[in-house]
Amino acid sequence: MIKQVRNQMGWLARLIIPVLAILFIGGCAPANQPPVISSLIADEEQISPYGNCLVSCVASDPDGDELSYTWSASGGNISGDGAVVTWVAPEEVITYTITVKVIDGRGGEATAQVTINVFINHPPVIDTLVTEALNIRRATSCVIECIASDPDGDELYYNWLPSRGSISGDGAVITWIAPNTYGTYTITVTVTDVWGDKTTDSMSIVVSCGCG
Question: Which of 18, 56, 85, 194 is the most buried (most CB within 10 A)?
Fold first, then answer.
């Protein structure tokens, strides 16, 4: 009888000791740490309806775990997966939120959001081109000013192009230097806003001998 009890005790010991060892080792293992999102950036803060932009998430895991990314948006569509996706804007002109959840596969996760404004851009408006003289002599010059505005208040850029002669300066006011030949010449200006929308206008100046 005693021998039988000893055998049972030995069997229990062989069963319990490994279980205790596993519990002990597991209890001493470091706790899982969640991922860390360093940044979430959209390459455009504002886009037009049905436009698209890239959204990039930079994340790491303190434990070196492999990360997966789950994306969602308050509107529009997301294409792609991983740390970089493309967001396609819907038609409605409002501000949208893009959300990413980074998961380490062991219960740890981190979430971040970025907002993108969908808007309709309006091209610049050229009110008029003004010059001090519409008739000048050969190889002389005149000042030309482009009076323009932008309905959205955007910064404007000016590109001047003469059919002949040369341009001095830049911006809204330039000097046109006439060629050494008679004729009627066209000076064209293209006004562009920060979104690439543009408007063009031109004026003609006569180069003559100035006789009479």
Answer: 85
